[in-house]
Amino acid sequence: MEQYSVKRVLFFFILTLYTLHIVTSRSSIRPNKLVSYSIPEKRLLKKALGYNEDTYLNFTELATKYKYPTEVHTVTTEDGYILSVFRILPKCSEPAKSYPVLLMHGLFDTADLWILAGTKIGLGYVLADNCYDVWAANSRGNHYSRRHVTLDPNKDPEYWNFTFDENGNFDVPATIDYILEKTRSLKLFYIGHSQGTTTYFTMGSLRPDYSNKVTLAVQLAPVAWLKNLNNPLAVLAARNYEIIQTTLESAGFSELFARDHLEHFVIEFLCQMAPRLCELAFTLTTGYKQGTIPLSTIPVAIGHLLSGGSLKNLAHFAQLIKYGKFQRYDEGKKDNLRRYGSPTPPPYNVSRISSPIVLVAGQNDGLSQLRDVAKLASKLPNLVENYIVPISYWSHHNHIWGFTAPDLVFSKILKYFNQFKTEY
Fold it and tell me: How many CB atoms lie within 10 A of CB 398?
């Protein structure tokens, strides 16, 4: 913020708060039809404001810019959600011998997560360079997967009636089946980050047969139990999630943090003008130590984060925090009986997951506490390693964007992939 005055930053901070106030107080602000994030007017404006173009380029445009060939695939789930999956073709002399890898992003995120840090740190690029067939998925409701065979996400609240439970029960299994069919492979590797790990643990608990389709799953910043979360703001919100959820639903908001909403543009602009302010936001929410991720990556990342999701999903995570259990969504006694056959939601039984799993955790991760990761590790029947990155500052996003992620995390992933690929 050195070259930006305190008054200027304060002005845009107040503007952000005012925008959020408008959005949460007027249900009519929701668009009547889908508005594309990448409309030319917005891009021209951002270019004129001096944005790094990587901030607004989509997945295929980013990959093409850095000379990585891509494909776009469409997967339809059993319950009618239409998902986009991006494929980065392997860069090697014998691509026919490549092995498929499925990448699953975290909360309010997209497949962009895996490549936005550039060719040296972007894990999607690193895997393709090492002759892996990379498939970067998008969970329902985000910018790329905001479609359904019958429901309109702009008009039908029922579209947003999902949590990571549905991601694990429908999205990931459908994507796995699609990839295996297209590649004619019997198995694939899986890498999840944050909620991308939660969906895998959910899938393995509800549909354990899919463990047989995964050679090895690597889980970065694993999230299942959240009993020991120590972020005071998150804990406070979780304790009061019911009134927050009811208030927002009454105002007509089943979707949160959509990429075409005004507050996204404002936050994105702030990060372009004052990236260290956004570093501070990461510090407050995830335990991030400033300077451990390239500063140029921060505003680019913010441009791709906050890509839409359901209010109900956030409420599900709030329940995990509030009750200290890794369990299915609590619909209330009556609806629990109808959905689960019991007055309380059943726990996810991760002991049903038979695929080999590597957990990768950070000592300073504000969202994935080591004590919670240890509890998860103790319940996994085929745990290969619970790897704690040996750097005290390592937090939630260092796994994927950190300066030393290639040495401390990616090298371990490649080592295990090579080992298990050979065994397979």
Answer: 27
Global confidence as pTM: 0.90
Q: How far apart are CA 2 and CA 358, in angstroms?
A: 41
C-alpha span between 3 and 140 (Å, rounded): 40
Closest to 128 (Cα-Cα) out of 48, 183, 70? 70
Q: What is the pLDDT of residue 150?
A: 98
Q: Tell me the mean pLDDT in the region 315-320.
A: 98
Q: What pLDDT is stored for residue 422 in this prediction?
A: 77
Per-residue pLDDT, averaged over 99-103, amounts to 97
**Are 413 and 218 in contact, with CB atoms under 8 Å apart?**
yes
Half-sphere exposure of 150 (CA within 13 A, CB side): 5
Query: Hey, what CATH class is 6-423 in?
Result: alpha beta
Judged by DSSP in three states, 333 sits in helix
Euclidean distance between CA atoms 354 and 65, whole angstroms = 39
DSSP string, 77-132: -TTSEEEEEEEEPP-SS-GGG-EEEEEE--TT--GGGGTTT-TTT-HHHHHHHTTE
Q: Do 102 and 189 touch, CB atoms closer than 8 A?
A: yes
- For residue 304, the number of C-alpha atoms closer than 13 Å in the C-beta half-sphere is 26
DSSP state, 345? P
Say if CB 68 and CB 125 are below 8 A apart.
yes
Place of tokens 């929410």: 285
Whether residue 414 contacts residue 130, with contact meaning beta carbons closer than 8 Å, is answered with yes
Please give the Cα distance from 297 to 294 (Å, whole number).
5
Give residue 251's pLDDT: 86
Q: What is the CA radius of gyration of the chain?
A: 21
- 194 is an active site residue: yes
Tens-place pLDDT, residues 2-56:
443 434 444 444 444 434 444 444 433 343 333 334 444 578 888 888 999 999 9
User: pLDDT confidence of 423, banded at 50, 70, 90?
Assistant: low
Residues 145, 194, 310, 368: which is the catalytic one?
194
Among residues 105, 304, 316, 396, which one is catalytic? 396
